[in-house]
């Protein structure tokens, strides 16, 4: 059977093969075009103005019931951003409005949820030194600053949010601060103690990370930096325990 099949294939001359290839390509192109045409965008919410928040930089987090949680960089009672919830009926409610002071302000990162429904995130500015904070918003909508960056060796101005391991430790990055001012990777334990896991130099190891980190099963962390590296075009890095 294989020999007969090959014999039939051999009878196709070059123009016939070209015609067959063109037909297959056209069919595939039509399928892609139809798939694109069937995609529909639905606006779930329009941010208007304070006090409901405005200009979200980060994405959203979705719970099992379908409610969405996120942040806006501006708007709110003090213009310093909010944490919001958009329920399945598309009703938006402000869970917390940042003052821009000790509680933090102008978040560029979204939030994550734990099993109890508490929310965790970072703000780019605000805090005791104006260099941003890591915060927790509990189910009673009480905000607690878990750590306030000083802007020095401990890092400054987190653009990204945090991840949380089963033990409750939080991991993230800051865009600035650290030994060379090029940002850090940090761990924040359940007692509020911060440990700098790596301080970027801005050189070959990268610098100024705007994204967070993800873990693997061994505890290694992976992420990217905006600048630095051999060509100063940024790097993808792995940080091992």
Keywords:
14% helix; globular; 2 domains; single chain; four-stranded antiparallel sheet; 241 residues
Walkthrough of the structure:
The structure is a single chain. The longest helix is centred in the N-terminal third of the chain and has 24 residues, at about 15-35. It is built from two helices and 15 strands. The protein starts with a helix and ends with a strand. The chain is globular. The strands form four sheets. The chain has a four-stranded antiparallel sheet, with no helix packed on it. A four-stranded antiparallel sheet has the order 5-6-7-8, with no helix packed on it. The protein has helices at about 1-10, 15-35, and strands at about 60, 70, 80-85, 90-95, 110-115, 120-125, 135, 145-150, 165, 170-175, 185-190, 195-200, 215, 220-225, 235-240. It is α+β, with helices and mostly antiparallel strands. A hairpin with a 5-residue loop joins strand 3 and strand 4. About 15% of the residues lie in helices and about 25% in strands. It has two domains: about 1-35; about 60-240, TolB, C-terminal domain (Neuraminidase). Mean pLDDT is about 90; it is low at about 1-10.
């Amino acid at each position: 059977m294989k020999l007969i099949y090959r014999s039939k294939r051999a009878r196709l001359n070059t123009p016939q093969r070209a015609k067959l290839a063109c037909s297959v390509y056209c069919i595939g192109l039509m399928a892609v075009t139809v798939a694109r045409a069937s995609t529909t965008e639905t606006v779930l919410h329009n941010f208007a103005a304070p006090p409901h928040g405005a200009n979200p930089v980060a994405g959203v987090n979705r719970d099992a019931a379908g409610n969405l949680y996120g942040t806006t960089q501006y708007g709110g009672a003090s213009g310093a951003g909010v944490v919001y919830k958009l329920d399945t009926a598309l009703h938006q409610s402000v869970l917390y409005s940042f003052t821009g002071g000790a509680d933090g302000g102008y978040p560029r990162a979204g939030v994550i949820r734990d099993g109890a429904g508490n929310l965790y995130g970072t703000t780019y500015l605000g805090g005791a030194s104006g260099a941003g904070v890591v915060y927790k918003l509990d189910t009673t909508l009480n905000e607690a600053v878990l750590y306030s960056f000083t802007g020095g060796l401990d890092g400054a101005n987190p653009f990204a949010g945090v991840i949380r391991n089963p033990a409750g430790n939080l991991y993230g990055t800051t865009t600035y601060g650290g030994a060379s001012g090029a940002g850090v990777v940090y761990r924040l334990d359940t007692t509020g103690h911060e440990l700098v896991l790596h301080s970027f130099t801005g050189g070959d190891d990268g610098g100024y990370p705007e994204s967070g980190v993800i873990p693997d099963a061994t505890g290694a962390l992976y992420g990217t930096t905006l600048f630095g590296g051999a060509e100063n075009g940024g790097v993808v890095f792995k940080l091992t325990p």
